[in-house]
Amino acid sequence: MGYTFALVRGKKTLRLPVPPSSVAIKTGSRNQAYGLVGGKEINVLKSPGLKEIDFDVLIPRLNYPFASYINDKASKKAIKERALQAGMRAAKKILGQKPKSEDERRIAKILDKTLGPVLESEINKLKKVHKTITASLRAEAVKNAVASVTVSQNLPKKVQDAAKKALAKASGAMNILISRDGETEWLDSSRDAKSFLVQLEKLKKNKKPFQFIISRKSPRGNKLSNTNIKVSLEEYSVTEDAGNGFDLTVSMRLKEYRAYGTKVRKIKKNSLPKGGTRENPAHTPKTYKVVKGDCLWNIAKKFLNDATRYPEIAKLNSIKNPNLIYPGQVLKLPTP
Q: pLDDT tens digit string along 241-264?
C-alpha cells in the first residue's frame, strides 16, 4: 500500500519526504458528567471536540531511494516523469498514432537513461568545478547529457528520428522544469531538508489554516479512502539524534480548524416621546394579591424596583403595621 502525506495551503504543497510510520488522529470529547443527589452520575452528550493529529516524520539529508525530495516546487521524480512524457509525445508524432510497443520501449529506455544516470553524472562533473549549481549550469548539464547519448544505428530510421526528437523535447522540458526551483539544487537532498524546515516555519508564522491530506493507494494502484482535514500547526519540534545519522526527525501536532465569524445585527433605538420621559416598558399592575411568605419589602422590590418604597404601599392601603399582611389580602400598588 502507498501513502502520500501533504500539507496544502492555497497553491503551495509541502509533501512529507518520507511517510510517517504511524499517525494518531484523536477526536476530542466535550461530554460533561454530573453527580446526582442519590449518588448516581449522568453523562450529558455534546458535539464532538476538534480532532488532534500527532506524528513523527523523517527529514533525510542524504539521498534515499524511498524518499521523495520536494525541492520547493517539484520532486526529482516528478520532473523526470513530466520530461519523459513530453519526449514520448514528440516521438509518437513521428512514429504515428499507433506506434509499435517495442519501438516505444526502446525510446523510453533511451530517455530514462539520459534523464537519469547520465544527467546525474553531468551535474556531478559541474559540481566539482562550481560551488553552486545554478539554473544555467543545470541547463548545460542537460545539454551535455543529451549530446553524450548516441542513438543506435541498428534501429530503423523512423525510430532513430523519433528518439532524437524525443530527446530534444524531453531535454527542453527538463530545462524549464528544473529552472523553476530557483536556487534549490535538483540533486542535493540536504537542501531539501532546509527547504522543508523553512516552509514549516512559514506555516506556523502565517497564522493561517491549511489542508492535511493523506492519499492511500493499494499495491495495485487503486485509490483507497483519503483523509482531508483543515488544520492549524499547533507545535513542532526538530530532533537530531546520532542514531539517525545526518537525518532529522520532526514531531508535529496539528489541530482541526473550524471557521468562525461574528453576526452583526442592527438594533433600532427607541426615540423619546415629546414629553421628554421614557415609558417604563415593564407593566406594573394596579393591585396585588398577597400569597403566603410575602412581605411589603419584597413586594416593593418586585413591582417598584425599589424595596425601600414599601412605606408607600403601607400608606396607600392604610396599613398601620407594615410587618402584618395576610394571604389573600389585595393591595393597591403605587405607580413605579
A: 888 888 899 999 999 999 887 778
Domain endpoint, select from 150, 168, 183: 183
Domain that holds residue 301: 287-332
Same domain, 86 and 164: yes
Percentage of residues of the chain with pLDDT beyond 70: 80
251, three cell numbers: 514531531
Q: Length of the chain, please?
A: 336
Q: Report how many domains make up the chain.
A: 3
Q: Supply the pTM of this predicted model.
A: 0.47
Q: Which residue has the cell 529506455?
A: 109
CB 252 within 8 A of CB 57: yes
C-alpha cell at 3: 501513502
**pLDDT tens-digit profile of 163-193?**
777 777 777 776 665 554 433 333 344 456 7
The CA distance from 113 to 66, in Å, is 20
Contacts 24+ apart (CB under 8 A), 235-244: 236/200, 236/204, 238/197, 244/58
